[in-house]
Amino acid sequence: MPGLVRKSLDSPEETRPFEGNTGQLQLVNLEQGAVGRATFLPGWRWSLHVKPIAKTESCQASHMGYFVSGRMKVVMNDGEEMEYGPGDFATMAPGHDAWVVGDDPCVIIDWQGFADYAKP
To answer: Torsion angle, CA of 68/85/24/28, rounded to 10 degrees?
Structure first.
């Protein structure tokens, strides 16, 4: 393993668009796993814009990430819910829906759950 590695989400190794032009996921791959930056545009909702790609009833990814901008509401299958915004660090277990709150894009950096996210 090299002592120093540099990758940039501004030059991702892979980009995955969401349904309906509602955003995208940009990925870089490290030896330790994928790191992604997702941009969710106003109106984005997992159950509308990723569910057709994932083909599961709810998001089955386990996320660990940091909210750069915008706001997102997350509701677990059991009804637990939370809203996240800029500066928040979040972990989310599998089994949830989520959507953008407000009129600003929501940008999240995730280093756990995006490797297979929105992957056809």
So the answer is: 40
